[in-house]
Every structure is written in structure tokens, then in C-alpha cells.
Design a protein that fits this description.
The chain has 260 residues and is of the alpha+beta class. The chain is 16% helix and 40% strand. It is built from 5 helices and 16 strands. The longest helix has 13 residues. The chain is elongated and about 60 Å long.
Length: 260
């Protein structure tokens, strides 16, 4: 039962293709059929973190808030799945506003590209040879040549994902910094990366791009054979993700900082 004082939101459901998510989708659609709308106030996403990122990308232009329910594995960006009490949970939910990164650049054949990344932009070697990448920040060359499997720049929300696996620093959600992290650095071997102001413009130039080819990936969108890449925080796009009361994204990131 819904409490009389509870606001009834117009909602729409979306779910990944895995059987657990599809089963949950059918149950929720039946339970909340009266609230379904083609013009929802909130999108309910059922799946794992990968599906949440896909859903957020789809809502970049609409800016409709997304509330996730975990029907995947880890579920760092998701809330617990339950059929009962959804409207009450949505009324109490807390909002995290995410600003994605904008990745622009050019490939070897002169093709321009422009992609958004919620978690990170990563540059990765395409062959057995290590990548050689020059790194500039706000027009100043900070590293003439990084020799590594690659390098990434992560948002605070993405700092617990690939960035953490590459031994990058976890960033509090409201810290207004970005994590620049090498991936298996060979030279300089002991460089662990840097924390940059969120207004920074980071430019990666591929050294010997025809011989040591590099791809650029914005979350899961890959551009191969890049010549250079620029990354900056988007000022035009903002995404809202909803979390259950007391289990905010900021709190989850804080907990991750103290895990062994």
C-alpha cells in the first residue's frame, strides 16, 4: 500500500536483457501499471552498473533522473531490488548530479570525434607495443612521453571503477578534481598519476601514431587509431542519479576509500 502523503511519480522502466532483470521488470510493471508514463518523472533501470551507464547516456539530452535497482552483479551505482514500497523510496531518495567528460579529437585519417564519458576516458595501446603518449594540461606539456599500456582520466563517480583497478586515487564526489592515472606505466616507472582541477583541459598526443597505434574509449565507446585526444568536463550536460536515503553515492565512495 502507498501512504496517503506519498507523491505518485510518473515512471518508466528499462531493463537489461539478463533473465533476472527481465523477471523483475515484469513484476514491477504489473505492480505499478497505474504509474507508467511515456513522459516519466523518473526512469527506473534494472540491471548492473554497465546497464546503468548505458541508461544514463540515453538520458543525457532529456536529463530525466534515473533510479537503479540491482539485477546484475556488483551494483555500485544501483539500489537494492524490491517490489514493495517503490514510491516511498523515490520520495525519500537523494540525488547525485554527475558531470560527464567530453572527449574530442582526431583519428589518423582525419576523422573528428566527440563523445561523452560518465566514468572515464581511457587511451589504450592497440598492439603488442606499448603506447607513447605526450600529456599536456591547460596548454602546458607536463609529460613529454609516457610509455605505458595507456592512461585514463576519471570523474569522481568513475574513480572507483577502472581508475581504481589501475591503482588511481578514489575521489570524493564533491571534490571538483579529476584523476589522471597511468595504466601499467613502463616509463616513468614510478609515476602514479595526478589529481587535476575539474576545469582542466587535458590533451593527449600520440607519439609515433602510425607505428604505436592507440584507441580512445569514452566509457564503452571506442575510437581506434587516434592522433590526439582532448578531455574536459562538460559544462552543458548534467545527469541525475537517485539513491536510497542514507546510501548516497558520496557515502559509497567514502566507504570504498577505507576498504582493504
Amino acid at each position: 500500500m502507498v501512504k496517503p502523503s506519498t507523491k505518485l511519480f510518473k515512471i518508466a522502466f528499462t531493463a537489461s536483457k539478463n533473465p533476472k532483470a527481465q523477471k523483475g521488470l515484469r513484476a514491477l510493471q504489473e505492480a505499478y501499471s497505474a504509474c507508467l508514463s511515456d513522459t516519466p518523472d523518473i526512469i527506473i533501470a534494472l540491471g548492473g552498473d554497465g546497464f546503468m551507464l548505458k541508461t544514463l547516456h540515453q538520458q543525457i539530452n532529456t536529463q530525466i533522473p534515473v533510479y537503479g535497482m540491482n539485477r546484475g552483479s556488483l551494483g555500485f551505482l544501483m539500489n537494492d531490488f524490491a517490489i514493495d514500497g517503490l514510491m516511498e523510496r523515490l520520495n525519500r531518495a537523494e540525488t547525485a548530479v554527475l558531470r560527464p567528460l567530453r572527449m574530442t579529437g582526431e583519428t589518423l585519417d582525419g576523422t573528428k570525434f566527440d563523445q561523452l564519458a560518465i566514468n572515464e576516458v581511457s587511451l589504450l595501446r592497440e598492439s603488442h607495443q606499448t603506447a607513447k603518449i605526450q600529456i599536456s594540461v591547460n596548454g602546458i606539456v607536463r609529460m613529454e612521453e609516457l610509455i605505458a599500456d595507456g592512461v585514463l582520466i576519471a570523474t569522481p563517480a568513475g574513480s572507483t571503477a577502472y581508475n581504481l583497478s589501475a591503482h588511481g586515487m578514489i575521489i570524493p564526489l564533491d571534490a571538483k578534481v579529476l584523476a589522471l592515472t597511468p595504466i601499467s606505466a613502463f616509463r616513468p616507472r614510478r609515476w602514479r598519476g595526478a589529481l587535476l582541477d575539474h576545469n582542466s583541459i587535458i590533451r593527449f598526443v600520440i607519439c609515433a601514431p602510425n607505428k604505436r597505434k592507440v584507441s580512445a574509449v569514452a566509457d564503452n565507446r571506442e575510437i581506434r587509431d587516434v592522433r590526439f585526444v582532448e578531455v574536459r568536463e562538460s559544462k552543458s550536460a548534467a545527469l541525475s542519479i537517485l539513491f536510497d536515503e542514507g546510501r548516497t553515492l558520496s557515502e559509497r565512495i567514502a566507504i570504498e576509500q577505507f576498504r582493504a
